[in-house]
From TrEMBL:
Keywords: ATP-binding, Carbohydrate metabolism, Kinase, Metal-binding, Nucleotide-binding, Transferase, Zinc. It is an enzyme of class 2 (transferase). Pfam families: ROK. It comes from the Bacteria. Its EC number is 2.7.1.59. One of its GO terms (molecular function) is metal ion binding. It catalyses: N-acetyl-D-glucosamine + ATP = N-acetyl-D-glucosamine 6-phosphate + ADP + H(+). Gene3D superfamilies: 3.30.420.40. The keyword Transferase applies. This is N-acetylglucosamine kinase.
Length: 303
């Protein structure tokens, strides 16, 4: 038995995994952001609640492990940022610890138990508040040792003009320190930013999408530009990785007409032609971080 954790800036969720088909969620607790001792104690309490001693724990975290130093980059939870977290937790808990990025865990969940089943190369894309991704090949996470593979949301590659007819697009500043990243336009906040740029209107992503689905002219223009901007970097990612399925998670994945538009645009821009949908809604809708971390932990146990 292993215990997996999905650790976010707001809550820590746990789960018990005995096999790929036996993963049971536990409760959730607030994340101690500024107190490492309290963070460890929260994990210890969740472990104790199971009444069993796991063989290891596996964590899905909204952060990245530096593959050279094994230090965690996790700005939204200061008490674990910069730590060699796996080693520190192994010392505190006396258990083997595996850590993976949350988007990587999402991709692993989709490859193992979701829309990516039966595919050799799966690229999991997140279109949520921002943009993320993870890459699984032959059932193995490319970032098993940490690193940034799958981070298609970052890099100064957004087109300077998009839509039909084309309209100029600013190189928006990104939180990563660069300008013109997919993350600046591809998530919900990016969609809102585009709408404000195009029409000088401040609407929520939900309002923009609702208006688009009712045929409103300005929202339709925004979605046209959005799809044009996002489809090209996603198509490039598919060409480079050879992915044959792209499960999409995050809030925007709930808008299936938007995914259909994006899928159509992406398939028109890639080298390998597919007659079936390629960019699809994810299937692991509940706790993909827990599932992905559990699958990684179970694979580590079997190795």
């Amino acid at each position: 038995m292993i215990i997996s954790f999905d650790i976010g800036g707001t809550a820590i969720k746990g789960g018990i995994a005995r096999s790929e088909t036996d993963i049971v969620p536990l409760g959730r607790r607030p994340t101690p952001k500024d107190d490492f001792a309290a963070f460890v104690e929260t994990l210890r309490d969740i472990i104790a609640e199971t009444g069993e001693r796991p063989s290891r724990i596996a964590l899905s975290i909204a952060g990245v492990v530096d593959p050279d130093t094994q230090r965690l980059i996790c700005a939204n939870i200061p008490c674990i940022h910069g730590r060699t977290l796996a080693a520190d937790l192994e010392t505190e808990l006396g258990l083997p610890v595996l850590i993976a990025n949350d988007a990587d865990c999402f991709a692993m969940a989709e490859a193992g138990l979701g829309a990516g089943r039966g595919h050799r190369i799966v690229f999991g894309a997140i279109l949520g508040t921002g943009v993320g991704g993870g890459l699984v090949a032959d059932g193995r996470l490319v970032n098993e040792a940490g690193g940034f593979a799958g981070e298609w949301g970052h890099g100064p590659i957004i087109a300077s003009a998009a839509g039909n007819p084309p309209v100029a697009i600013p190189a928006y500043a990104c939180g990563c320190g660069q300008k013109g990243c997919v993350d600046t336009v591809g998530g919900a906040r990016g969609l809102e930013r585009l709408h404000q740029t195009l029409h000088n209107l401040d609407l929520s992503s939900e309002e923009i999408i609702a208006q688009w689905q009712h045929g409103e002219e300005k929202a339709t223009r925004t979605i046209d530009v959005y799809v044009d901007l996002v489809a090209s970097p996603l198509a490039l990612t598919i060409n480079i990785t050879g992915a044959t399925i792209v499960p999409v998670g995050g809030g925007l994945s709930n808008v299936e007409p938007l995914l259909a538009e994006l899928d159509h645009a992406v398939r028109a821009r890639i080298l390998r032609k597919f007659e079936r949908p390629l960019v699809v809604r994810s299937e692991c809708r509940i706790e993909p971080g827990l599932i992905g971390a559990a699958l990684l932990g179970l694979k580590a146990e079997a190795a």
